[in-house]
Amino acid sequence: MSVVAYTKLEALFSRLSRIEQALSILHWDMAAMMPAGGASSRAEQTAALKAVHHEMLTAPGVGALLDAAVSEPLDLWQRANLREMRRDWVHASAVPVALVEALSRACSASETVWRKARQEADFKAVEPFLAEVIRLTREMAEIKGQALGLAPYDALLDQYEPDARQASIDVIFQDLAKFLPGFMTQVLNRQKPAPAGPQGPFPVEMQKALGLKMMAILGFDFDHGRLDVSHHPFCGGTPEDVRITTRYDEGDFMRSLMGVLHETGHALYEQGLPQQWRVQPVGRARGMSLHESQSLLMEMQICRSREFLAFAAPLMQQSFRAAGQAGWDAQTLYEANIRVTPGFIRVDADEVTYPAHVILRYQLEKALIAGRLDVADLPDAWTQGMIESLGLKPPDDRLGCLQDIHWYDGAIGYFPTYSLGALTAAQIFQAANEAVEDLLPCIGRGDFRPLLGWLRAKLHGRASLLSTEALLIEATGRALDAEAFKGHLKRRYLS
Amino acid sequence: MSVVAYTKLEALFSRLSRIEQALSILHWDMAAMMPAGGASSRAEQTAALKAVHHEMLTAPGVGALLDAAVSEPLDLWQRANLREMRRDWVHASAVPVALVEALSRACSASETVWRKARQEADFKAVEPFLAEVIRLTREMAEIKGQALGLAPYDALLDQYEPDARQASIDVIFQDLAKFLPGFMTQVLNRQKPAPAGPQGPFPVEMQKALGLKMMAILGFDFDHGRLDVSHHPFCGGTPEDVRITTRYDEGDFMRSLMGVLHETGHALYEQGLPQQWRVQPVGRARGMSLHESQSLLMEMQICRSREFLAFAAPLMQQSFRAAGQAGWDAQTLYEANIRVTPGFIRVDADEVTYPAHVILRYQLEKALIAGRLDVADLPDAWTQGMIESLGLKPPDDRLGCLQDIHWYDGAIGYFPTYSLGALTAAQIFQAANEAVEDLLPCIGRGDFRPLLGWLRAKLHGRASLLSTEALLIEATGRALDAEAFKGHLKRRYLS
Fold first, then answer.
1. Number of domains in chain B
2. B437 in a domain, yes or no?
3. CB pairs below 8 Å between A and B: how many?
4. How far is it, in rounded angstroms, from Cα B449 to Cα B442?
């Protein structure tokens, strides 16, 4: 039997993938390089490429090819690829091209205005732009939901994390919401006053050099990627050319460094995707939860560990030419890195309070999509939620609902993957520790190869061959639960 | 009467323009940002976008729309736009999409290998890649020539400079080739020994700051552009987001600075294109000769003038914190800037010897396309040509046929526009001097607004409304000839 239909589909999806890669580089450029005056023109470029992509993916005949390929003799990877192709096609063909273009333009406009509005704590300035993004996203969620047989918010979730559903996330988040407040109180009660850490200022150039050195130690391949600066740190680009970004604060080098290590975790996943499948749907990273698990594995499980910080402390001290200065010992750096401090900003949050930030956003975005919350009422609802969950009232919207790029860039249904990722990271690290001999002693010597080898074999190199759940079961022996995460927190903060 | 066909064409060409803009940013990224390992993947992205562009432009029905629009009631700009649309369509529809893709891929591969080959003076390493570019370009020239009723090389010329023909360029270049050797000898005989100029090193950061300051003085809008670094300086990006590049030599700041001023001339043209036509063919810069005239007007006519250097000398001295040091007076800088020195490198050549570099490349590329010269014989032919025209034998191919990116990136038929641009610049400057009151005294105060205002009215803002020749006649009162250029050289070097 021949594989005529499947072969045609591979050619189509390869070209689609090249357009996605171009879009990804253009998006990185917008965030890291583009002057402000280029925004509206870039929005049009992006909208045009997305429209072309959408038209190619939903062209007459693609559905028939997908149907025909089902009965062709495909191997395991090809069959998984066909499944992912269909997923893409169903998501895309549900939505009219005019809506895709309108949403793309609305997101670009909103993100651009947000950059300034955030700096100036001026929610009103961006409100109409966000309202338009939400309006169009609700329209899309409704249409996709009908096509997929899902509730509108589930249809959004499914874009970022295949098969994730509100009902199961609710269960996990309720479990966390039950465990964490008491745990946080326990931790705060026994937490000693902060030791005096290293004294700045920490020049940007030295921070950058340290970040680059640490990226190399973790295994980042600089022949296939770079480090730059953007408002909101992210990992973008393509598997052959991974672009990660950070932002620098001369008063606090650890914030940027931990951000760099976090994004390096994402980057290692991308750089570890299987070469031969990279321009096919099956060769993509599995989903956002697993992606986030790779960044949090690096940042939270490993780089904030005693072992890693004992290795890194002298390198950090050298990087800032701080020989002989106080505060650079591993114990002090460790205590600073596992400090729990309820605060306003999600990306600065410790791993104990972080889930509260995510759960707030999850609840608010569900309400926005359900139409139970107006965009105009978002700042008040945010403030209320922060008071209830962490006992903090943000002094302005810059420290409140303007802090994250996600909604302003149209990423709704994305936030829960951060905390699903944290739970997944804990579970993966537990399994890696059991499977890889001397894992932590290796980390303590700055040798990441054993860990990276295991991750590449179990996760990175398998891309989207299996479902998230199946990958996790094969790697860790069981489906996702919160036990490893709770155990990790108890060991780190209460022992 | 309605303009149905024309309106459909505008929508199509607007989308095509967005794809061209995306390609332009990706090309800039490849030269200025991309890690080496991203090259093959980027080549595929570029090839995919070019293929999509080509398919859209040559889709069934476009020819019929072009025919139908001819009888619709169009205004002056619309009619010119329709003429440019047809030009694009004829160029594109002549060539099969497979050839477009193959050439794009061959150029990306060749350019990437060239980067390393140039550094290592290793022509053999890039020879097969260049041979493939030439082979495919000859194929394309043949096909386009048949479609356009032109000789193959004329079909290539026409891509960069509409209506330019080998026959008329031969006449102008023969005239120049007759005038210049004797003139060069005269200049070299009376030229005094070089005065001792400013002493380096000149730190890159200070050079960059000076370049940015000078760009602003010339009128570059940083809300719509940036300055970066690449192997071969160029002006890319889009009119809303112009990306110019330079490269720095810590031993010689003037080389980079004059490069920046040159690219700023290109950038001002792009930034001055008419807002409302920027995503239509008629809103593009007219052609490469006129584009080069804008860069050479700034670099050669103005920024190497006594008046400009008298203004700039103290700013330069300040930029390098060289107060009290020798060599920074305007007269010394002026003499250094108008120094004539036959050399190996085109981009470093003075305006007297520059045409010899162009004429050599013009003759060689004509021979390559005609099949009279093999790529394998290029280094020898180059060396022979340099000995004959400038009396110099390049010690290696890095200083010979590897120095320029053009051929390796598939730009064949482009080189003659540099010298056509030099003649045009002289003619335009002559006209501007007559039309704008106190032009040079303004330049002497660092006030570029009167000049820029005239350029925007006469040239930049008219984009491709008229032919190159008609634009030049309206701006200068006559068609292109070499008189203004010769007059300029005589005034500057012999008086």
1. 1
2. no
3. 103
4. 8
Q: What string of DSSP letters covers A178-191? A: HHHHHHHHHHHHHP
**A423 within some domain:** no
Strands A225-229 and B235-238: unpaired
Distance CA A472, CA A289 (A): 11
d(CA A144, CA A140): 6
Beta pairing partners, A245: A228
Query: Can you tell me which residue has the tokens 């552009």?
Result: B225
In angstroms, the CA A95 to CA A87 distance is 13
Element at A238 (helix H, strand E): strand A235-238
B57-88 per-position pLDDT tens digit: 999 999 999 999 999 999 999 999 999 999 99
Interchain contact, B241 vs A21, CB within 8 Å? no
Mean pLDDT of all residues belonging to chain B: 95
Mean pLDDT on B168-192: 93
Quickly state the pLDDT bin for A1 (edges 50, 70, 90): low
Token pair recorded at residue A147:
């096509």
Residue B485 counted as domain residue: no
Tell whether A99 is covered by a domain. Answer: yes
Interface probe, candidates A13, A241, A277, A278, chain B, greatest B C-beta count within 10 A? A241
Q: Which two tokens stand for residue B109?
A: 């591969």
What does the DSSP assignment read for B263-283? HHHHHHHHHTS-GGGTTSGGG
- For chain A, what is the mean pLDDT? 95
pLDDT digits (tens, 9 = 90+) for A417-453: 999 999 999 999 999 999 999 999 999 999 999 999 9
Owning domain of residue B14: 4-160
Q: Please report where in the chains the tokens 């790529």 appear, as a residue.
A: B375
**A residues 162-201 closer than 8 Å to B (CB):** none
